[in-house]
Design brief:
The complex is a heterodimer of chains A (102) and B (244). Helix content of chain A is 83%, strand content 3%. In chain A, helix 3 packs antiparallel against helix 4. Chain A has four helices and one strand, in the order E-H-H-H-H. Chain B has two domains: 184 residues, no CATH class; 55 residues. Chain B has eleven helices and one strand; from the N terminus they run αααβαααααααα. The N terminus and C terminus of chain B are likely disordered. Classes of the chains: A mainly alpha (102), B mainly alpha (244). At the A-B interface, strand 1, helix 1, helix 2, helix 3 and helix 4 of A face helix 1, helix 2, strand 1, helix 4 and helix 5 of B.
């Protein structure tokens, strides 16, 4: 299904994108309102919350380019040494930028 | 069984304001990312107001970038929506993880807070809950901060142009990865945590290599969740039998 990009269809596509995104933002909460929050479910949710982050990071660290890996390594180093998140992020980004520059 | 957090679901104006301020510094990076999007969108041929409308209404960095590849004189609606859904499906997980606290709120507030959930404010809110501090103000206030910066960034990208012609050259594509890594390293960890993370990491990698694009977050998160359930059951065997 394709549409010619006119003013109206463009707005329609953006609106549809917004609705799909909203459905993902609301869907998890809505679905959970039908699930009893047993201790087991709570443990699942707790373990899942950390896993989302790891699942996001792992491919970046393993399959990313050298700059990506260098950025993560720098962030980890600064974080472990100084425990300053914002500084660690900045250093990571700068490391990637420098690597790509040279 | 205990209710998660006694008063951690609190949400008042002060908490929202605190959340706003807490996410404001990271918002600077989001603005840079937004500027990169504004520029990429302009180069992909989107009209200025189209780009701005999209950032305002959709508010989702990676998916908006991905859609640019599909944008042209013909708009393939189904491919666009599928891409948006696949990349944003992680919001479903975020909503589920926030439910133990959100359920205490009336529906209007509950879904109102979720309007602005995204990676950074969600991760920070979860960290706050883990420290037994209220987190929903971070979602709402922080989300509003991120939304404003995202929009401002897009605006800058669209109008001021060539500052950031190639976001990768400035490492801006790594902001979210570094942010999440910093939060992960800052969190409390036990042996169980490492086992769960190992499961999540390996399954997400397998999904990344062998399953359809953008499925790795979903797969890794659910596998990690299942691992967490199994481990705790082993650890607690004979202790509590208050399962459903």
């Amino acid at each position: 299904m394709s549409f010619n990009a006119t003013g109206l269809t463009i707005f329609g596509v953006i609106l549809a994108m917004a609705l799909v995104t909203l459905a993902t933002r609301w869907g998890g909460v809505f679905a959970m309102s039908f699930v009893p929050l047993s201790p087991r479910v709570q443990r699942f949710i707790h373990a899942m919350s950390g896993s989302v982050l790891i699942a996001l990071l792992a491919p970046l660290a393993v399959a990313g380019d050298t700059a990506a890996r260098l950025a993560l390594l720098t962030t980890a180093g600064v974080m472990l040494l100084l425990k300053k998140p914002l500084l660690a992020i900045t250093c990571g980004v700068i490391a990637a930028a420098l690597f790509r520059y040279f | 069984m205990s209710v998660v957090g006694s008063e951690l679901y609190r949400l008042d104006r002060l908490l929202v304001w605190q959340g706003f301020k807490q996410l404001a510094p990271i918002g600077m990076f989001v603005a840079a990312f937004g500027a990169a999007f504004g520029l990429a969108a302009t180069q992909a041929g989107l009209a200025d107001y189209t780009t701005l409308t999209m950032s305002m209404m959709v508010f989702t960095g990676t998916a908006q970038f991905a859609v640019l590849d599909l944008w042209g004189p013909e708009l393939p609606l189904f491919s666009i929506l599928l891409t948006v859904f696949a990349i944003n499906s992680r919001h479903l997980l975020m909503g589920a993880t926030l439910y133990p606290w959100l359920r205490h709120l009336p529906p209007a507030k509950r879904y109102g807070v979720m309007l602005v959930v995204s990676d950074a404010n969600w991760a920070m809110a979860m960290q706050s809950f883990n420290r037994k501090q209220p987190g929903l103000g971070i979602i709402l206030g922080g989300g509003i901060a991120l939304w404003i910066y995202w929009l401002l960034g897009t605006l800058i990208g669209v109008y001021l142009g060539n500052i950031i012609s190639n976001p990768k050259a400035f490492g801006i594509d790594m902001v979210m990865g570094c942010f999440i890594l910093a939060l992960v390293l800052d969190s409390k960890k036990s042996l169980n945590t490492y086992i769960i993370w190992a499961v999540a990491a390996s399954t997400s990698l397998l999904a990344y290599w062998y399953l359809p694009e953008n499925s790795h977050i979903m797969v890794g998160a659910i596998a990690g969740g299942i691992a967490g359930t199994l481990i705790s059951e082993k650890a607690m065997a004979g202790e509590d039998n208050d399962e459903l």
